[in-house]
User: What shape does this take?
Amino acid sequence: MSGTLGVLSVGAGHLKISFNKDNEEERRMAAETVVDLLCKGYVLLVMDKEGLYHRVDGFDPETCEYLIVEKNVAFTTPTEIKVATQEKDTKDSADHETASEDEGNQSNSTQSTSEWKQAPTLSSDGGSSKGIKSRKGRKRIDASTVSGVAVARSSGG
Amino acid sequence: MPVQSAALPWPVLPEDEISRLRFALHVVSHRRKHWAGIPMPLDDEVLIVEPTYSGVKGMAEIMPKYVETIKNSSEVKPEDDFEIRNTFWSTKYHTNITIVEVDGKIQHLVMPRHTLKMMIHTMGCSDAWGMEQEQQALNLLATLISPRSMKQYFLTGQFLETSKRSGIVYIFRRLRPTIALRSTEKSSRILACLCMHPIAYYDGTWAGAMCPTDDLIAHLMLMRADEHMYWRRSNQHSSAKIEAGMGI
Assistant: This one.
């Protein structure tokens, strides 16, 4: 069995790269192409054995393995973030009023509202979006066992 | 007598000049390691390209009439006989209102409420794609979705899939933006219509540089693998807008 990667292409259909374990030359060329794709900003999306899809974060040309950053992130759309921010603001201002009555400390409450506004737009089980990019939890997937698709940079729409 | 192809269920069309150009561009792009190919400029259409993509570097300078980068396309272009002062969306009329200055006088234009122009231009963009590429893309799509979804796509040009991560329902459509819905037991709400084309697209159309199903595969795969990136990379159109392709 050899894993394949289809590069979505404009010209004559998509380009297929295969990682054949029996063909060292083909494997080496495939590895070079994948490294080049990542350098040029392509997004590599692969499906693992469990049927889950991942975005490839890096590639090890020596072992022909995709490097995946495992994320456990709850997705929230921009509209929902806006609503959540408004709700939080309302809650904060209510808390602020209570705090002002109790302690008369206005500055602390204002700071907490601004902190929320600057908070990462992703709600993450593992912490902030900064933490997602850390090297922790990197998973390796053998390129010769999975299939995937590479997508070039987006021009919008 | 047309020759029947084994791969395609329809007669092979005679080769035209555009198909030869497409093949030539493919050969050049492969030699130069532009893996996603070189998008094809078309007469009467403006190609908006991703400025950092190496395969299109310099195209906008060589063919300024046909190719623009994203940066240039947002700039207001001076017109000979009138100047555009402002454009805004009218919720009342469900269309864009453009304020123009003609001979020193301010006037307003109500833009068309229908999508006929976009539909016709999108149809014209089919010159850029080959049926072989579309066939290949369909073969790939068939490996990614269920047979029922594939049948729906083949027959109606759309299928839906629910995100395992967020629970958002996406309606993937051929040559139209993907509709994102939040469904509850009581009701459904359209969140946005997501429009995204890898490398390039033709301005004022729903057509990308890639064949329609390849564009759709890009949407599907990004949604499955990285929903955040999918939303970030897409233009999020309101469902009321013409660009959303919801049939106003």
